[in-house]
Write the C-alpha cells for this entry.
Amino acid sequence: MKESLVAGIEKTMGHEVTEEMSPAHLPVKVLSTPSMIQLIEVTCLLATQEHLDEGETTVGTHVNVSHQGKAMAGERITIDVKLAEIRKRRLTFEINVNGDSGLISTGTHERAVIDLSRMGG
C-alpha cells in the first residue's frame, strides 16, 4: 500500500439503471439490491486502486447497506463513497446512493487489501 492511501479518499460515480439490473420477480423494472451492491463495490475498488502497490488490489469482505428508495430503469443514480477508516489491510467505506427521487441507500462497505501473487491459480 502506498502512503497516499489515507482516510478521507472519496469517489463519486454515476450510472444509468438498466432493465438488466432489475429483479426478475417484480412487475416493474427497478434497481435490485445485488446490482446496487455491485456498483458500490466497483466504486470503492476504483477509489483506492491507484493508492495500492503493483500486484495489490482489494476484495469485498462485508456489506452493510440499506435499500430504502427506488430507482427505475432509465433513471440515473450517483454512488458516493468515502474511505472512513484503515485498520492494517482492512478498509471501511461510508456509502450513499442517491437517485432522481432522493436517497436510495446508506451504509458501510469493508474491503481487504490483498497481494494478487498469493491468490494462486
Summary: The radius of gyration is 15 Å. Residues 10-118 form a domain with the Thiol Ester Dehydrase; Chain A fold (CATH 3.10.129.10). The chain has one domain: 10-118.
